[in-house]
User: Fold these one by one.
Assistant:
Number 1:
Amino acid sequence: MEVVDARVILAPTVSFLCAALVFATGRSVFWRRFWTFLAATIKMGLVLSMLPGTLRGVVYTYQFVEFTPGIGIGFRADAYGMFFSLVSSTLWVLTTIYAIGYMQGDKDRVRFFGFFALCVSTTVGVSFAENLLTFFLFYETLTICTYPLVVHAETPEALRAGRIYLTYTLIGGGFALVGAIMTLNVAGTLTLAHPGILSGDAGFGTLLVIFLCLIIGFGVKAGIMPLHGWLPIAMVAPTPVSALLHAVAVVKVGAFGVTRVIYNVFGVELLQQLGFATPLAWLAAFTILAGSTIALTQDHLKRRLAYSTISQLSYIVLGAALLTPLAATAAIIHVANQAFAKITMFFVVGAITKTTGKKYVSELDGIGARMPWSMAAFTIAALSFVGVPLFAGFITKWYLALGALQADAWWFVLVMIVSSLLNAGYWFPIIHRAYFRTAQEPWPPPPPGRRLETHKTLLIPILICAAYVLLLGVTAEVPGMPFSVAQVAVERAFGLPGVTP
Amino acid sequence: MTVPWVEALPWTVVLPLVGAALTPAVAARRPRVAGYWAWGVLLVTTALASGLVVELALRGPFSYALGGWAAPYGIELRFDHFSAWVLPLAALFVVIVPFSWRYLDHVMPAGRLPAFYALLLLNCGGMIGFCVTGDLFNLFVFTEVVALSSYALVAVGGRGLAAYAALKYLFIGAVSSLLMLFAVAQLFVMTGSLNMADVAARLAELGPGVPVMVAFAALAVSFMVKAAMFPVHVWLPDAHAIAPSPVSAVLSGMVVKIGIVGMLRVYQIYYGAGVLELGPFNQALVWLGAISIVMGAFFAVFQDDIKLMLAYSTISNIGYIVLGLGLASPYAVIGASVHVFNHALIKATLFLAAGAIIHQTGYRTLSDLRGVARSMPQTAAAMAVGAVSIVGLPPTAGFVCKWFIALGAFEANQAPFGFALVFGALFIFIYYIRMVNAFYFQQPVHAAVAEARDVPLSMRGPIVLLATLCLILGVLGGIPLSFVEPAVLDLLPAWGP
Amino acid sequence: MLLFGLDLDYVAVIVLFCVGLYMLVAKSNLLKKLLGLNVMETAVFAFIVTAGMIEGGDPPIMVEGTSAPFASPIPHAMVLTGIVVAVSVTAVALALIVQIHAHFGTIEVDELKELP
């Protein structure tokens, strides 16, 4: 049942305000940190307060403004949107702590944290979008707000990376815009509240163009090959940016968009009729395997993580493209699993670089002795990606396999097995080097007076995220955990019945 | 007490004109007073205009017969939904004039200030008159008032080069005005009346014929020249780039829109009369608009001088509006009409911000202005907001109109133009990203740039205000849209919602 | 009298307009261009006055000795206003030409193009 509730619109807008305050008062370190924190925590608080209702099946809505009848800016927090905003707002709090520590002594921190807060708002705005216009509005605003963060270092390569990033994302945005307009023209509405607003009457050709435009548009950010080119290049950004934006916010927004298109614009039935989802599933499978294969060859740590992200995102796309309830559950739950695990890894890599200055896999011999807790967290995340039971990633793979079987597409199970092996192939060497090789030159110990292996603001988020990865894997069935939200999402938001296996 | 706003209608026209005439007298002793006088006159005009718009919103369109002579024999002033443009017009002048108080110090000697402000008031009065008149010949007269003051405004700030640009503008503008006079005379000869509504009715009785088409063609060409549409756009870049920045803002934002409003009036007559098959003409407009978009963006990208780039960008945006008009579907025309307003706002932001930067640093080209964002943060931020707006990215004002025009393209089954519109806008982003990068992320090369301070409040205030409005109207864009919607639906009876 | 299916008056107007247009476009001296513009304007005024003529009509003044049909007075008003406008345009153009001459020393378009 739908309830009008201002919290849906307060969640994104409160942090807009905080961002403005960061810009205005940011010269003072205290106020800058205060507003940034406030933005993150208020948002998380608002989202959490809506969680009980969501589990009961309540949907919170708020119509903001109407341009003309039927076209306007509206907000709607259904279970899927709630899931996404929960993940991003939780991770935001953690990344804020991490960023404050990481960026100490860096320049232009007012600009950094100001746009950081703006990105928070836009991501939640995307997750709570009631229609494609609102979705697109926040989607493009996210692009603009992430640009100053990507080029933060202001070096020529950072500027080049920023240009490439913008080229990809804006052209993708153009396709998404055209797709949205064509949808409006054909369907007469843009709402994302139903399991599908398009119908077969529009004609195969038109529907194909709409599908291609929307998928290309959102697929750029979701890293579907061959639209993934910007992701590895954008790794030149500071690690907190790479961690949150390119492991969680920007890329997940793209994947979120792809799933919304599949489930709420086209709908499962129409796609099954048209058969568009099968090529998409194959493309996702290709991306999974190709991304992992390229990751094997990367020595630069962040690039290896980038290609792994590309590969992992397509799990979500694959899950959605399979069009079955179990696969949908896998897709949604992987939004959380991949986010937490990947962010753990990025945090660790950033901590390593900050503490020892090393950026390449080949330089990491014996670092397990110098930074045991960080590498433990890294190992947990790696095991999750490989899909070892009791870790979060296993849940995803299990449901995805079941979903593939439910769709009579057993060959995708093979794809996942191969992918797990590839994941092991590029994570385990890092762990092996870290623990089982002795360092070429001894690692400098922490400066006197420091007991921890690295700064506590870097270490605490690492540990919390790693713990969460374990938690997600172990307690999946416990009510109140993200998994149950995902189930509600699949049943209510997508109109797919009967998810429990 | 209810104010009879109908009586205020002629005053909105008369006030700026009389104010213009009085300016030299008012400023005889101290020339700077001219600026404050002009601002005062414009404030009162804006207040009157807002009253008129409120009256329009409450009670619908209304008329006023000049001198008590009733239409169709007398001159009728008619305030309908398209005339509501006078409110944002006057309001933009009110924002731009404070900017010129300080800006003109380095552009012209103080002795010329009264002349400048008198011309500005004439320009404003002429445009207001253009928008509220219901008489064809009156339309011609006001067109000329606007045109003459524009020619003079281009030249008033400079020496030989500005005069030459103004002269080229004058020659092309005078020819287009002649065409308009010819068309008005032709229509009078055919119908015996000069009142627009009356002409429409009598044309309907007359039926189709070559003279009707000739008059339409002359009017259309005349307004297209004024609107700087391809291929008759050649006068615009030099004139807008050489003029002082407040004048560029007025010219790019408002004077070119005279052509668009004129075209809307012509449409009102001819759609109402129904004697001409406008389909082929509209299709030609669509093509020319699309070419304007692409060509304007293409040339803009290769400019190093900021103001020249902004001038070419104006041509590109006029292309959007013309494209929307030509598509002739409700959403497209609504989007085009609102873009008249949004583009004026965005262009004013950009030209004023550029003017402030040029004023403080003395440099006009992108390569010279690197790193200016550190010295002039607020102005550079406003320029960045304007850049995002003009490309049409959310959440700014430019996005809403582009959305509607593109929607109209699909509505009218002209999908390729929808694609061209969306991707054409992205092309011009190449320049703006170079600009943002140069301003923000590169080191200054000139001492003047590194040591510049941000402009004083009388200049900064308007810039920041306009930039904020660009952002706000992105979200609240529905207000102008729903305002224009009834007028457009009246205009296009064949296409319902 | 009919020539090419049109009254001789209208043909003359068209010829005059074309002459003016030629002067505006083809001459390189700015003053001559301005004169061409004036000729064009005169052509349009002539068109208006001619169009308002009625065969055998009286001047539109209500005094002794005049009776219907009257020639329409509105074209006369239009032309008068048009002449005022044309004079203003010419005045502004002349001021601009003086300015150009003072600054560049020439009013030939060919020479103006050569200047940096």
Number 2:
Amino acid sequence: MGSGRPELLGTPSGTTLRFGTLVALALATTWFVAGSFASAWPADPFLEDASCQVRADLYLTSTNSVDPDEAKWALYRECMSGLFLPRIGWLVGGVALLLLVAAVVYVVLPRWRVRRSRLELLDHESCPALWSKLEGPLGELVAKAGLARAPEFRLDPYSTRAGGVAFGTRRKPVVCLDAGLVALLDRDRAGFDAVVLHELAHVRNGDVATTYATLSVWRAVLSVVLLPYLVFYLSPLLDWNLPNLDSPITAGLLVRVFLLVLLVYAARTAVLRSRERYADALVALWTDDTDPYRTLRAEPEHRRVLRWIAIHPTRVARNAAMSDPKSLLRNGFGEALMSGLAIQLAWSHLVAGLSGISWYREGNESFLVMRVVWSVAVASLVCVIALRGAAYLRAGGVGRWTFVRPGLGLGLGLAIGLELDLSRAAARIFGNGFVVLGAAILVLVTALVCAWAGLVAVRLADRARGWLGAVSAAAVVVVCLSFLGWFRELLVAEVLWRDHLGPAFTLVSGYGRVAGIVVVPFLLNSDRVLTAAAVALLWLVPLLLGRGSARLGVLAGLVGAAGWGVVAVALSFTAGGTPEAAAARSAWELVAVVAVQVLVAALVARRSELVTALLATWVVGVVGCLGIWALHLDGWQVDSVLAARPSQVLPVLGVVAALGGAVFARGAVVPRRGSGRLVVAAVLVVSAVAVVWWPKAPRAAALLPEAGPEVVVNTDQAVNTWQYGGGFDQFMAVRFASDEVFKAFEAEDTARIAEACEKASARSEEAAAFPEPPGAEVAESWRAGLALLVPGARECVKIYRDGGGDSQVMLDGFIKSLPDFERTLTLLNAARESTLPGSG
Amino acid sequence: MAERDFVVDTARSVVADLAPDELALFEPVSRAYLRDPKKVLSDRDRPGAVLGSGIDIAIALLSPVALGVATAVYEHLLDKTGEALVERGGKLFKRLRRPKDAPEITADQLDGLRALAIERAKELGVADDLAEKVGDAVRTTLEREL
């Protein structure tokens, strides 16, 4: 009999959470699709949006460049606010419809199944003879399964198989027995018991409600969300408008929807296979037999490919679950990947919907709130991975990759989920090197976070359910928030480099090459307090749970810091007196701190655990911070921005150093002497000062160019937006009005000429008051044409309505403006054609 | 009604002789058979159902075979001796009085029906020795009741 049964029963399986992620994905996808429908009815938000962009002079093109002028954004949001109410109606209505359909499917499906398959109710009235025979054995099995209330038993009289199935609802679970299985009661009682117990295990585990609720939700999503969505987007193709296939949005959407359905199906079947193995393990436990189905071996093995989509696990997997239940506790790469992907996609679709009603934006707390939401969801998965992995190890499992492997899967799922976001249908999947690099870092950091959480869970052991467990879970949330919550910046990695990091690197490299390199991680960390808190938790939590040595860590850190002090003092003699030289010197001092951190970590790792090395590098960082302040302080000011906030980089680089030092670990652990709590408390107090407070540096050399990032706009897209936003209407109104004047002159009708000139004057003045096109060339020709037409039309009115007026100005206005307007039209058409699909 | 009674009663008798442990199950299986004989007799493997046991081994049930064989016998009798014989048979099974003018069934005819039952049982996937027993049981039942 295998070990691991107490852990199996006492450890969360995580499948409910995984089903939960699928439901969350379904709801968020519905939310997103409803937002897309809102763009089609009742108003045409595309035109409204274009109009608002024109009015606010804020052209949102594909460059991802953000205009820093908040006034433009305020004007744009105010203009767009009229569209939000119907959009909210769509969002709420879409989700309500989904839930309604899902509820109907959930309730009706079991009844329909009973009716369609003509399943006989097993009771005294329907099958008196059979029930009198089955009542006793089934009652015993219900008691053995620990069920307070027996499910409804039904018979499939058409099936001669020895199988059963559980279905129904939470209130009314049903276990259906095949006729062949019932016949086993007298022929193979052990086989009969095993199969019935398997179905009762599903009832006991709550699989019936969670499984069928999830299936109902996804059936509802397919029928009332994804199918209408595809029809909505592909309807032009139904008219054989095949060039639409070339549209990157259509192609990207098709690929993403296909992959979404495929992945959800794969995730669903993976969770179902997991539930089957859990049910088998319980059967083995209840029957005290590691092979209770030995007399029923006839099921064909799935082929290798089909195993991935099969609802039931292979025979080998089922045997493993029954003979070695602890194997169920081992986290799989694939299940973590699917969960991460579902969380990421759900979050992205939720955010897309919230952006549509302008809640998710700069200027409020939405970014922080949604980052916390994401972090809590991801931290839940990390906690499940950690708890299950720790239970697996406690039960005697072995494996160095127990936490890292699912961590890699989770990270990969998060990275892929970001790319499959339907709202990014126009973007190429992993379209540039920055995104690939960022995704690789995300995967690696996720694996490390899972490994750390696993370390904590192993130390927690049975205390995981107490307050220590709750505190540790909160620590996991903070760590996820800081170390993984930056993922959104992956989407704008190229822009981030182009607009911020690149210019800063170029500028600061002028002060010194090392300073240019140091400034990049310095600017990457936008919230040093949160980052430092997360890094502190990395060593603090395991230390308080009994891992590592506080005294050794602090001692090693102080010794290392003393060595750094000697180097830093020597560096101070080499520096010049300019702000640029101060920046370069502080960069060298930071590099020296990191070098000492690496050295200390390597030495500590040979004597103790990684936790001790983390503490040692932390202490080196804190003392280094205080030392840099001391060397640069003049009153309450310093002479370098890098010297003002060393804690912006040192905690994270300390972690990197500790991980590097861990390469030299020999597995030797020095026994702890005392808890070291006083030492830790002292470190925390000093650290709080070093992290929260920082001196100002008003005369320091700048790290960023004064001009700020240039707003990059795709001119053709912007001009196109201008046309849709009312610009083309203005253009055509002016042209029609001019044509009417020419026709009136041809007719030699003075009254008609006067009337046409009045209209031309009004239209041209309206056009002059309308925002100019956002392209320089087209704006110039448009402006030149209007500059002639406005006075020309005005003089025409004077001549033919009031008497007087300058006829030459009038003639110039109508005739000489024609080439400018022709040129304007040519440029407008060129802009429109350049934005068509396939234009390159 | 005559056909139903004949088939169910004959099959029940066969099951009682050869697989008495199935008698309790015979009742719902025969109801299902009368609703949809093909479905009961077809040996379709069921793909893995959600939250199913995943055990798809077929169990040799005699009830569907007995019902299938009884149907074949009934149809044969209908062809050979006409509705009257069957009507009489049905009535016998209901323990009604035997009409004086009803035709007698001969030993040769019973042997023929036994052979038919064996052939049909084999068609339904029953092993040879069990098929022989089914044939014997059918013959005995018909001999006793007719």
